[in-house]
Amino acid sequence: MAKTKGVYEWAKNNFNISIGCFNDCKYCYSSSIAHRHGRVQRDCWKNMYTKSYAKIDEQLKRLPKTKNTDPDLYDIMFPSSHDLFEENLEEACYALSKILELGKTILIVTKPRIAVISELIYRFQDYKKQILFRFTMGTADDDVRQYWEFNASTVRERMICLYLTYKAGFNTSVSIEPFLEDYTLIKHIKRIQPYVTHDIWVGPMNFTHVPKEYIEELNQDLYYTPENLIRIKNEIDSLGFDNIRYKDHFLNKIKLEVST
Ligand code: SF4
Description:
Blueprint: E1 11-14, E2 18-19, H1 29-36, E3 49-50, H2 53-61, E4 74-78, H3 89-101, E5 106-110, H4 114-123, E6 131-136, H5 142-148, H6 155-167, E7 171-176, H7 185-192, E8 200-202, H8 212-217, H9 226-237, E9 244-246, H10 248-259
Parallel strand pairs: 1-4, 4-5, 5-6, 6-7, 7-8, 8-9
Antiparallel strand pairs: 2-3
Helix pairs in contact: 2-3, 4-6, 9-10
Bound molecules: iron/sulfur cluster.
């Protein structure tokens, strides 16, 4: 199977200011990697802490000086291994303003909270051309959201954030990755579409880092069989939206099915 690019399908580099993440999603890739490398115990991942301004300054100095020549990729994805909360908002705004002043483009990826998004769209209204907000919205069923992303914002709060950001004139995008069930998917895409100025990404869950008991509890693997992915893709394609993008591991799974 082709190697997937993960976050590098979206941006040249990442920038993170916190370790751990209050959301504590059951499928979290970053917590699994941190646990595997002995950096953070999996059950301590939710105890997020934020780096000092001195550490953030050091990190800013290490940003690549070379110009990104790929028009499909943002210079920086921010953040990639935690989320944005009121608790790390000041440090986030500090780092964002420094990066934006360097003229870099930023992809802000988050499970958005109203308090955070209101502040960002207020503070960075002069940098609209350099920013794309990509909101992770994996389901329209809040019970399912709560199972997988227990401490994250609700479906309703994310929808309000998308609307606010769009109305404020920012570029918007949605990541339905991982999609957490398939029965609301088409309705979900139709509902968010009017408020998305850029692309909507769809991708399955990557099971490599998900404890087996979670997958089994909801029969989660049934959603991501190659046959089901082909059916889902056909249904989405039949909507006729030209801004739907499929993550490479979605397409790889389908290719494998077709070639066997
Ligand atoms: S929001 Fe992202 S980084 Fe935070 S726990 Fe969920 S998957 Fe992990």
